[in-house]
Amino acid sequence: MMNPDFYSRVADEFGEYTSGDLRTDVFPDGDPEAVFDELARGLGGPGARLVDVGCADGRNLLRIAPAFGSVLGIDMSASMRDSAERKRAEAGLGDVRFELRDASRTGLPDGEADVLTCRRGPLFPGEFRRVLKPGGHLIYMGIGETDVRELKETFGRGQLYGRWDGRPVMDEVVEELTAAGFAVVLEKAFRTEEFYHSPVELDRFLRQVPIFEDYDTVADRVPFERYAASAGSDRGVRLDRHWFVVQARRTT
Ligand SMILES: C[S@@+](CC[C@H](N)C(=O)[O-])C[C@H]1O[C@@H](n2cnc3c(N)ncnc32)[C@H](O)[C@@H]1O
């Protein structure tokens, strides 16, 4: 799921990480990206230092970067880093840095960040705590256990397959962060309905994300068509997403 080679292949083929113009989104619980942005911006300021982990092509980081005095995005995929540099230049944001670093051993100094953000990237509570200053905040967006469940059931495989029968992922993240010395100040789940304009857009999306790292348009044609038929509507082909956001403060 977190294989940086997968993301490099996506950046090399598509030049970026997923395109929003494939679909229309409906947010019964609010837009998780907008909520995440607002939480992060609320912790910004001219002297505030932000580190974003698993930033991929940097598109989400660049939206919140102007609220901070210094901004560093880290990822292990060189192709994604190159894509992020291009997006940074296009946005005219000169002082955002993108570096190749492993989130499990960043090599960053203790207390380097006032705020650490991570959307759908790898979670290393001990390292994140070390990199944050005492009192600093982590904002983490994770993938919930029921994310695209029907699609995965139709394919009989996929990221977090079968996890819907287990303990909620968000509960585990809260427990891990608490054990590592964080006080959780917010935890919220979000259901999002995505409507892909047609099966062509859904196919393109599946080639860009690691829901099935081995997804293949030709080899997976039978389950793909079965899903597209069962989830089709006049608004498009529907995918039910499940994200969650946790905000936690480093206590000591
Ligand atoms: C699901 S993508 C999320 C990208 C972006 N945060 C977003 O939400 O659009 C996960 C990213 O984490 C990166 N990644 C995976 N393992 C990593 C690690 N150990 N250290 C740094 N980045 C990592 C991948 O290369 C990929 O770009």
TrEMBL record:
GO terms for biological process: methylation. The keyword Transferase applies. GO terms for molecular function: methyltransferase activity. Keywords: Methyltransferase, Transferase. Residues 51-136 form the Methyltransferase domain. The keyword Methyltransferase applies. Pfam families: Methyltransf_25. It comes from the Bacteria. InterPro entries: Diverse_substrate_MTase, Methyltransf_25, SAM-dependent_MTases_sf. This is Methyltransferase domain-containing protein. It comes from Streptomyces pluripotens.
